[in-house]
């Protein structure tokens, strides 16, 4: 903890949809997930959200359809043999134009969504290339400003998933002094294989933000339990995770074996929570956790008034 630096990270609000972070340059078609006014590729101030770009493309298609009706009406009027035919063509064309305009207004949200789907699907290669350029930009500022590098990677990670960017983010977080009020993440950083820095981060988060320890994290810790035990203070780390798991009955039941292995290392408040859970649901199948908890209670908290004997 002594060699970790205190940092202030800018607030981060996760978007409702991942593509909300994505913007495209109207001039050169370069995609980016990083904030900024100008396109890093062409230098123009022509960046717009992909939703805005899709709506523009959908609107262009709708205008083309309206123009086609106008041209069809004018053509029909040009070939009209007399005034009644001309009036009939004009009236029919106007009615068709109004009907099409009304239909387009009603269908506009669906057309915008279809255009967005086409835009993203058609340009998936360009999007990946743009995000990789973003990642390289974040790495390039790492030595000068590791906080800024992390913030850039955090923005990109909404769209660019995978172990490489997650590992880079974990390595940066390892050098920061974490606080409860920070925008901490957990499941977005989980890797496929064992990483000691990630395990340390999980242990810190388990102490600061128990609500972030969920199923995927608990499964990761169980999968690499043996490797974590070989780390310095590995058992304390695992006890912190087990202490997070007892906040919910479902987790306590699903991971009862794991919790039981570290129940004697739980702080008093976390063991009290476990004791209360088991006492409230004595007829649940605790897989031996209830017996283990009673043994610990009898050994460590026999005279503590907050603990009563667990009924079996």
What is this structure, in a nutshell?
60% of the residues lie in helices and 4% in strands.
Helices, strands, pairings?
Elements: E1 5-6, E2 23-25, E3 31-32, E4 47-49, H1 50-78, H2 83-122, H3 124-140, H4 146-156, H5 163-174, E5 176-177, H6 196-208, H7 215-223, H8 225-229, H9 234-245, H10 249-254, H11 256-262, H12 268-280, H13 289-300
* C-alpha termini separation: 43 Å
Order of helices and strands: EEEEHHHHHEHHHHHHHH
Shape, principal axes of CA atoms = elongated
Q: In order across it, which strands form the biggest sheet?
A: 3-2-4
Structural class: mainly alpha
The unreliable regions are: none
Radius of gyration: 30 Å
Mean pLDDT: 90
Main beta sheet: strand number and arrangement?
A: 3 strands, antiparallel
Q: Report the portion of residues in β strands.
A: under 5%
Number of domains: 2
> Share of helix among residues?
55-70%
Annotation, overall tally of beta strands: 5
The number of helical runs is 13
Describe the protein's architecture and organization.
The protein has two domains: 13-141, no CATH class; 184-307, no CATH class. It contains 13 helices and five strands. Helices cover 60% and strands 4% of the residues. The relative contact order is 0.07. The chain has 312 residues and is mainly alpha-helical. The strands form two sheets. The chain has a three-stranded antiparallel beta sheet. Strands 1-5 form a two-stranded parallel ribbon. The chain has helices at residues 50-78, 83-122, 124-140, 146-156, 163-174, 196-208, 215-223, 225-229, 234-245, 249-254, 256-262, 268-280, 289-300, and strands at 5-6, 23-25, 31-32, 47-49, 176-177. Strand 2 (23-25) and strand 3 (31-32) form a beta hairpin.
């Amino acid at each position: 903890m002594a060699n970790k630096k205190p940092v202030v990270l800018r607030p981060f609000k996760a978007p409702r949809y991942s593509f909300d972070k994505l913007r495209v340059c109207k001039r050169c078609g370069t995609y980016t997930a990083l904030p900024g006014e100008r396109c890093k590729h062409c230098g123009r101030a022509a960046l717009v959200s992909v939703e805005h770009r899709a709506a523009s493309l959908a609107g262009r298609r709708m205008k083309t359809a309206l123009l086609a009706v106008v041209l069809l009406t004018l053509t029909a009027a040009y070939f009209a043999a007399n005034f009644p035919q001309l009036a009939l063509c004009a009236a029919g064309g106007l009615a068709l134009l109004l009907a099409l305009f009304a239909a387009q207004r009603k269908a506009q949200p669906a057309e915008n969504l279809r255009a967005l789907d086409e835009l993203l699907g058609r340009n998936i290669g360009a999007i990946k290339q743009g995000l990789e350029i973003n990642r390289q930009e974040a790495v390039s500022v790492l030595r000068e400003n590791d906080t800024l590098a992390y913030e850039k990677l955090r923005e990109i990670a909404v769209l660019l998933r995978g172990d490489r960017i997650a590992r880079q983010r974990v390595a940066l977080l390892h050098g920061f002094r974490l606080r409860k009020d920070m925008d901490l993440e957990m499941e977005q950083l989980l890797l496929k294989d064992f990483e000691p820095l990630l395990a340390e981060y999980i242990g810190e988060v388990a102490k600061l933000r128990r609500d972030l320890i969920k199923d995927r994290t608990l499964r990761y810790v169980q999968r690499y339990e043996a490797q974590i035990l070989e780390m310095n203070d590995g058992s304390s780390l695992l006890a912190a995770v087990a202490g997070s798991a007892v906040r919910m009955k479902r987790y306590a039941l699903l991971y009862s074996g794991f919790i039981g292995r570290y129940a004697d290392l739980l702080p008093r408040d976390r063991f009290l929570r476990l004791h209360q859970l088991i006492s409230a649901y004595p007829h649940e199948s605790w897989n031996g956790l209830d017996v283990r908890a009673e043994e610990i209670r009898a050994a460590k908290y026999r005279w503590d008034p907050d603990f009563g004997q667990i009924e079996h």
